Amino acid sequence: TMRIAAHRNLVGWNMPARLSRTEREQLEELVETSIQRIIDMPRWRGRYVSLTPGHPKEIKINEYEQLVADGHMFKSQENDREMKAGRLAEDWPHGRGCYISADERTTIWVGTEDHVIIKSGSRSETDADALLDRLRVTIGLLSDGRGIAFRHDAEHCGYVTSSPKRAGTGLVASAILALRKLTIDGTAARIHQIIKSDGLHVKVMPADDRIHNAWDDLTDDVAGELTSTLGVKFAGDVEEVGDGDTVEIEVNRTYGVTEAEVACSLFLATLVLRSAERDERVAGAALGTGTIGR
Fold first, then answer.
1. N or C end of the chain: which has fewer CB within 10 A?
2. pTM, two decimal places
């Protein structure tokens, strides 16, 4: 499973932490108008749903919870400590909404960490370049809308985002892999040893969370970092993950790199880990049949 997300903020509007309730709702209305153009295109279609009370497309709590469980929508920000500390959860749930394409490969979150977060991916995606191309097309369609232009400082920081770590490309590229053999000791120690790509960090998911909880909110909740001799940073330490589990890899560099480099870093990391997992399985099978050393 692979996904690439682009964080964007609109020109002419306060940053999310400074928006009033009225401004949040007006911003949602503006973005929704542009999204409607995408919905009207046969290739995309899909639907827009809103959490804003009284909005014509407001959804009920049970539908919202199902969209969260399916990985299409963000979790409630009311109890998110990081979002609240950054004043990004103000006026919840006013001005919050989400577009979901008909094939469920593209989503646009409205009113969360940044004005919009455009995501491309699905549980079956494996081609980072294809995801990046689809993401670029979606961003282009959205920005074609009247009054839609994204904050960008070409000389200093690139795309302006609420979190400094998103500045630059504004991209977050992540993949979720089932690596049973590499985590069979109940920790992520082997994962930390294997990853060689500069600027990546690894986050381990409990097995019972599975894939559908992986795309809720890509902000970090990091207890510490490991730095290898190559300067690679990893989230956490030697995490306890149970007897064989699922790992999420997220590209950590967005500043001073290109969008293509972000996608390439993700692809190489998944390639390295899948290869290591396959080698472990082959070695385990050979050991089980007694063929090693013959």
1. C
2. 0.80
